[in-house]
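forwarding from the other thread:

> can someone predict this with zinc ion?

sure thing
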Amino acid sequence: MARKAADAAIGATKTALVEQARKHDRVLRLVDPKHTTMDCGQCGARAKHRLPLSERTYTCTACGAWSPRDKNSARVMLVRFQPG
Ligand SMILES: [Zn+2]
């Protein structure tokens, strides 16, 4: 039930974002959220295990980079949209 409510909330947010982007003539890029919390924003390595939500720092076992988990995820999303 909670998952259904969360999915509905995400769907409503996405609809609102698409509408606002259209209304204000802005480019909106939707990112596949898969593994955004598991991939390293520096080297692209994928962690073997999902980070528990209580763990706020992402540390890469491959390159040793570390950053706040949300910043790491943001970097992963940016990298996914680099052309080429
Ligand atoms: Zn890394």
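The pocket of zinc ion is lined by residues 40, 42-43, 45, 60, 62-63, 65 (CB under 6 Å). thats all i got for now
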